[in-house]
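Design request, tokens follow.
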């Protein structure tokens, strides 16, 4: 439910400096209109709305101001550098140097409540797992909680829509209000670099924040890795409350810089990893078929824990979640340690989806960066007695530079590599595969994801393992502007049923 505010009260409540220009057209206007909603989509404007004329990658919102006013907008938010003042305006105009941030703050103010404790997670890999593990730990401790990110909104007995890792501010705060109204007190949320750079999370009250890692990704959007890091660092330099807790990967090359940022703001720091700097220090890992045994030192005390999850990186994701939940006032790491063995994996993240008649396990994972692909292959190797078979591709209209590096990783760490299509989008699938093949010239190049997976299955013998990487939980492919249904796990199950039928 939205909270209606007079324009003057709304601007005053934001506590930020803006320039308000009153109308100078010939039409009558309301001197202090009531704002009943906000949007950056002119087609969603209703009478009494504030329209945010934002500059996007494809459209300039100022081109749609006339349409917004015709639909009933009573105020317009624009960039201070905009030239819209060359035309008469019949509504109030709010001018600011950072309209995206103000748009987010207005969205937060108009949409009322948020859960009492919000934890945010940023990093190239691991965000989805960390927020889901955080939610699970809270639930196991009797806390009504939810998570929001790549998998949408996950909450008990509540269905909400969310299509982006970090949704637009209106969608985000609509969901936050709905969660709060439903009784959810704790929320774990993914913070993507795009969302942070575009100020989508500004206005969210964040009490704990985690940084997982940073490796090459999204350089089609960010100028370089330095810019990519600075976008993620905003979570700690600007958004995390000064009374909050930062949970940092102590093994990351960016640990020192993030620690410096947090120390400068007097933010408390919790950390995890092998490093002696880590407050949750990993001493030893013993992998076994269905999980791992871990020796962990927490504040000088050694604990032994069991995880029903495969992979060192999954352990790190669990520790990040442990840091987030223990950051809440009145909570301690010890409150959650006994429940770590009950944590369940996230759909599409090293998910065991079936077993070949030969006994070979089949796994799907969302890995779509060189570092993520490396992590899953390294993590799976101790569980493979025979061949490690890897089927993967790369998305179109995304960072092209990472493609040969992904190929190189697979060529070094897998025994059989099959390069195929992911989501080519507007690009030629063949061209994408060829760019990957530059890093793995001996790999098999198979157009069509179903054909590639079928080939991977046909290569399996006793002791082997097949990992299908890139799409994880996704249930569709985007090819040449068309979206078609395709689910790696469902396709594998169909193929396995056919094989079993033939054997019988």
């Amino acid at each position: 439910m939205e909270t209606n505010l007079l324009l003057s009260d709304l601007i005053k409540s934001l506590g930020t400096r803006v320039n308000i220009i009153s109308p100078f057209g010939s039409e009558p206007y309301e001197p202090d209109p009531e704002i009943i909603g906000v949007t950056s989509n002119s087609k969603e404007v209703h009478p009494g709305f504030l329209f945010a004329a934002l500059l996007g990658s494809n459209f300039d919102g100022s081109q749609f101001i006339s349409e917004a006013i015709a639909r009933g907008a009573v105020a317009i938010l624009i960039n201070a550098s905009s030239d819209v003042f060359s035309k008469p305006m019949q509504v109030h105009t709010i001018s600011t140097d950072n309209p995206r941030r103000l748009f987010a703050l207005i969205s937060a103010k108009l949409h009322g409540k948020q859960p009492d404790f919000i934890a945010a997670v940023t990093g190239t890999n691991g965000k989805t797992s960390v927020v889901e593990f955080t939610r699970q730990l809270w639930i196991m401790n009797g806390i009504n909680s939810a998570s929001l990110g790549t998998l949408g909104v996950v909450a008990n007995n509540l269905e909400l829509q969310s299509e982006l890792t970090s949704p637009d501010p209106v969608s985000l705060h609509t969901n936050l209000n709905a969660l709060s109204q439903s009784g959810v007190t704790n929320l774990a949320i993914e913070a993507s670099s795009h969302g942070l750079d575009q100020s989508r999370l500004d206005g969210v009250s964040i009490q704990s924040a985690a940084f997982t890692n940073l490796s090459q990704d999204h350089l089609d959007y960010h100028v370089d890795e330095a810019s990519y890091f600075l976008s993620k660092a905003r979570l700690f330099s600007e958004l995390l409350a000064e009374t909050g807790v930062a949970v940092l990967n102590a093994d990351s090359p960016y640990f020192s810089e993030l620690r410096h940022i947090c120390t400068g703001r007097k933010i408390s720091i919790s950390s995890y990893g092998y490093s002696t700097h880590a407050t949750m220090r990993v001493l030893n890992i013993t992998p076994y078929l269905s999980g791992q045994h871990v020796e962990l030192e927490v504040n000088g005390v050694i604990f032994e824990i069991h995880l029903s999850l495969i992979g060192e990186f999954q352990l790190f994701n669990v520790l990040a979640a442990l840091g987030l939940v223990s950051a809440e006032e009145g909570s301690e790491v010890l409150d959650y340690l006994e429940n770590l063995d009950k944590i369940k994996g996230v759909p599409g993240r090293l998910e065991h989806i079936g077993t070949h008649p030969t006994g070979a396990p089949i796994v799907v994972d969302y890995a779509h960066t060189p570092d993520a692909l490396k992590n899953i292959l390294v993590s799976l190797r101790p569980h493979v007695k025979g061949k490690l078979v890897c089927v993967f591709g790369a998305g179109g209209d995304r960072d092209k530079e990472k493609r040969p590096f992904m190929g190189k990783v697979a060529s070094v760490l897998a025994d059989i590599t099959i390069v195929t299509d992911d989501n080519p989008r507007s690009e030629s699938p063949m061209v994408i595969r060829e760019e990957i093949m530059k890093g793995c010239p001996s790999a098999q190049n198979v157009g069509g994801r179903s054909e590639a997976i079928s080939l991977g299955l046909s290569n399996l013998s006793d002791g082997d393992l097949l990992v299908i990487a890139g799409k994880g939980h996704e249930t569709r492919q985007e090819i040449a502007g068309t979206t078609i249904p395709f689910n790696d796990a469902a396709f594998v199950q169909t193929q396995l049923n056919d094989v079993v039928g033939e054997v019988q």
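Comment from the thread starter after seeing the answer: thanks! The radius of gyration is 25 Å.
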